[in-house]
Amino acid sequence: MWLILAFTSACLLGFYDVFKKKSLKNNAVIPVLLLNTLFSSLLFLPFIIFSANGFISEDSLFHTATYGWEGHKFILLKSVIVLSSWLFGYFGIKHLPLTIVGPINATRPVMVLVGALTFFGEHLSFFQWLGVITAIVSLYLLSRTGKKEGIDFKHNKWIVFVLLANILGALSGLYDKYLMASPENGGVGLDKMAVQSWYNIYQFFMMGAMLLMLWMPTRKRTT
Fold first, then answer.
1. Which of 3, 91, 156, 221 has the most CB atoms within 10 Å of its CB?
2. Eight-state DSSP code of residue 106
3. pLDDT of 75-103, one tens digit each?
4. Is the four-CA dihedral 55, 59, 60, 66 of positive or negative sign?
5. Distance between CA atoms of 176 and 166, rounded to whole angstroms?
6. How far is CA 25 from CA 102, 119, 164, in A?
7. For helices 69-95 and 157-180, what crossing angle results, to 10°?
8. Share of the chain above pLDDT 70, in %
9. What CA–CA distance (Å, rounded) separates 95 from 158?
10. E strand or H helix at 181, and its extent?
């Protein structure tokens, strides 16, 4: 079952990139990302409200735990990491073809594997090491073929943006493990629904501030 869910997730992520590229056509990144965070917040807000008022049982998969500042400060940091990744990723995908962005994004799991090896002392199997090497070689070959399309990986800032988005995305995945691991295992032990729900809401307010302070004053002077 888990393998089926993994393939389903990969398929949905592919559609996500396609629709993300489509939504950014003739649109600015910041308002598009603001709407993304708004819709995500509206999706999870009922779980927070219903859980706080006892309408969702604590045994339910959708129950959202309530925390004070001691818990929310970790979720706020999660929001900053994810939003930074999304900003870099959205700018990159807006200015680059999906044939370049997609393969670069495929290296993110490899970054997570290396991070797990470095920070959590996990051990990679032979096939995982083989996957890491394959991803590195593939990225090198992609940079070679990208030059034929007029995209120089060394001097194209949008390539750097996509790479930064992937690094921050991998960092977010590793931080998730720390957030939701039990204190006995060196983690914080936060509820997964609380993390998922609140980091979207925090991102919405961050994007709202960014829209008002950065995008609105310059929108008439840019395309």
1. 91
2. T
3. 999 999 999 999 999 999 998 887 777 77
4. positive
5. 15
6. 17, 39, 22
7. 150
8. 81
9. 7
10. none
